[in-house]
Design goal:
443 residues, Rossmann fold, 4-stranded mixed β-sheet, nucleotide-binding
Length: 443
């Protein structure tokens, strides 16, 4: 009987995101639940000792490293410069992500036009639109400039060739998920392709000391599409968000190696393009403050900014066994908790009423410091007594009906005084009942 031959061990398959291994290919990683991230792993190789090569550049003491080559350059968009920490650092790679249609391409085209108008040479790589389509948007937004170069390419080698030929001062790639490399297997947008494209563009940015702006797609749950290593490769990760029903847009820094990550840039979309809003205070207030019941103003923190936001509430009596709870711009579970606290500690019973809570301007409130404004708006709508128009309220409400201290109280109070509100109600009060008496008691 012939002896059976032993088959060489298969390297198996490995997840490009988390490193999970399996003996056979699967479409979804069992560890990180990522789709399309499982790839064939390379066979194990023996240990290789790195050879020592002669040094061409000696290590420099950190105090002697020159800073002239990393001076920030403004983009021309003041709100974007605020988020980046003052401008773009040469040689940095910035990733701007956001949902489809939110205005990423419009914002970067405006940045390209501002930089080109200052005399710099800008290369705009459009991997999703034709040159004619980008030209139409540029004419509509006034972004035409003789030093703004446009190229519609999806091959990484051609993109690198365009950078060699144009020798730009700024490179914009729209988007990184649609550019692919012939040297790497897989489809455009796959983990391997995105990793190779991002790594190549990062290497070019560091070698040439040229900033690179990348547009990134997001998945349906809001995460940046592609491997997680993409966020590690780049220097700055910004997220562009906004409701399509409103012209307001926000840019937030999720990661920033050169500046803070608690700044927020505010923009307004229009038919002529996108423009920064240096003082968005009046965008979230209506004209009915102090005259209509069910309205209350709070100071919400957006990064380092304290922005006044008006909360509106409507209470309607119903005979249905399950009253409706409809919210817009606030957390529904938070409103449900505040309704229970109002009934238990505020003397406001809304168990037989439909409740509607919304914010003005489409802004979304997520921090606990806006609890008091929601509660007082509900109390005002129930009693039909307007809240005083000269006060703004801030405070987190506990399940015991106590008003807890809030963060950045001094900054909120300073902004309230600047906008003409005489009192910032909340930090000096102890309980919710005290706040109701101070704000919506019959006068």
């Amino acid at each position: 009987m012939p002896a059976s031959r032993s088959r060489p061990a298969s390297p198996g398959f490995r997840c490009a995101e988390c490193g999970w291994r399996t003996a056979k290919w699967v479409g979804r990683c069992a560890e990180c639940q990522g789709w399309g991230t499982v790839q064939e792993a390379e066979a194990a190789v023996g240990r290789v000792q790195a050879a020592v090569v002669p040094l061409t550049r000696r290590a420099t003491p950190i105090g002697e490293v020159p800073l002239d080559s990393v001076a920030r350059r403004p983009t021309g968009e003041g709100e974007l410069d605020r988020v980046l920490g003052g401008g773009v650092v040469p040689g940095s790679v910035i990733l701007l992500s956001g949902e489809p249609g939110v205005g990423k391409s419009t914002l970067l085209l405006a940045v390209a036009a501002h930089v080109a108008a200052a005399g710099a040479r800008v290369l705009y790589i459009s991997a999703e639109e034709s040159p004619g389509q980008v030209r139409l948007r540029a004419e509509r937004t006034g972004a035409l400039s003789p030093t703004l170069y446009l190229s519609a390419e999806t091959d990484l080698a051609v993109v690198l060739g365009q950078i060699d030929q144009v020798e730009p001062d700024l490179v914009i790639v729209d988007s990184v998920q649609t550019v692919s490399s012939a040297e790497t297997t897989g489809f455009a947008g796959g983990p391997g392709q995105v990793r190779e494209v991002a790594a190549s563009l990062t290497r070019v940015a560091k070698e040439r000391n040229v900033p690179v702006l990348l547009v990134g797609h997001v998945t349906k749950d809001g995460q940046i599409a592609g491997p997680r290593v993409l966020e590690h490769l780049v220097d700055v990760v910004c997220h562009f968000e906004g409701d399509r029903g409103t012209p307001l847009r926000f840019v937030r820094a999720i990661k920033n190696r050169f500046g803070p990550t608690d700044e927020v840039g505010c923009f307004e979309m229009s038919g002529e393009g996108i423009a920064g809003v240096a003082d968005p205070s009046g965008l979230f207030l209506s004209r009915a403050i102090g005259t209509e019941a069910g309205t209350c103003v709070t100071l919400a923190l957006e990064g380092r900014r304290a922005i006044p936001v008006e909360v509106q509430a409507l209470v309607v009596k119903t005979s249905a066994p399950s009253p409706r709870r409809v919210v817009n711009g606030v957390d529904s579970s938070r409103v449900a908790m505040l309704l229970a606290v109002l009934q238990r500690h505020g003397g406001v019973d809304l168990s037989q009423h439909d409740v509607y809570v919304s914010t003005v301007g489409g802004v979304r409130l997520t921090e606990p410091a806006t609890d008091l404004a929601i509660a007082l708006a509900l109390g005002s709508a129930t009693t039909q007594v307007p809240i005083r128009g000269d006060i703004a309220v801030c405070g987190e409400i506990s399940l015991a009906g106590e008003i807890r201290p809030i963060v950045q109280a001094a900054r909120r109070e300073s902004e309230a005084k600047r906008l003409g509100f005489g009192t910032l109600l909340g930090p000096d009060l102890a309980t919710l009942r005290d706040a109701i008496i101070a704000a919506i008691a019959p006068r």
